[in-house]
Amino acid sequence: xxxxxxxxxxxxxxxxxxxxxxxxxxxxxxxxxxxxxxxxxxxxxxxxxxxxxxxxxxxxxxxxxxxxxxxxxxxxxxxxxxxxxxxxxxxxxxxxxxxxxxxxxxxxxxxxxxxxxxxxxxxxxxxxxxxxxxxxxxxxxxxxxxxxxxxxxxxxxxxxxxxxxxxxxxxxxxxxxxxxxxxxxxxxxxxxxxxxxxxxxxxxxxxxxxxxxxxxxxxxxxxxxxxxxxxxxxxxxxxxxxxxxxxxxxxxxxxxxxxxxxxxxxxx
Length: 268
Ligand SMILES: N[C@@H](CCC(=O)N[C@@H](CS)C(=O)NCC(=O)O)C(=O)O
Hints:
The protein is mainly α. Helices cover 57% and strands 6% of the residues. The radius of gyration is 18 Å and the shape is globular.
């Protein structure tokens, strides 16, 4: 059985879990232990999740993992065979980190990590001393976002920009999914970043008709509610600011939902 190192609070981990479930690939979950990162580091020098282990083979980076799962475990259901459609899925996945994920760095990450502010700074200092993990630019962005009195406004501008780009570049010819009329790994990746902003009360996507219609369709996909139990439990973190306790409880709720599907979850 394959192993996915990750947790429900991690957007790219949620995308990998959902892909496994939709493709009926059995897997077990190993949550990251950020107090003892040595095992994770042996698989990913950045000590980040998700990481996939398939026998002797290990792979990090969400997009690479999702493509691997589609190619190895067959079917053209979530990665279209048509060269052009597949290229459009790849186009989205290449844009994903600089585009959709940048809304997270400005909106979700500061509001989630604000509960761990002290821990975050300690962690950053430790990472720096270890010549490690968080890219200095990412660290700068996160600290700048936390210090910005206009954090929410600026984050929302980024989310609106991203939404405009997606509405203009995808959903062509009346497609209900980003590329075509069946969900692909591009939808799963994109949804993992954008949808969380609504539950968290950080951006409401008002006026983005195509994206709102897509949200409704994505919510009907199998396992949607299980995968997003963490977000439901975390709730509106603008109305009720996040705390370390809420974060832990939401993570626990997300894990519990996955365990209820029969997915083995290792204790960290
Ligand atoms: N580009 C990576 C991003 C991975 C990532 O940022 N993982 C976060 C959780 S969402 C993490 O493990 N953070 C811990 C750390 O940076 O120390 C991917 O798509 O897999």
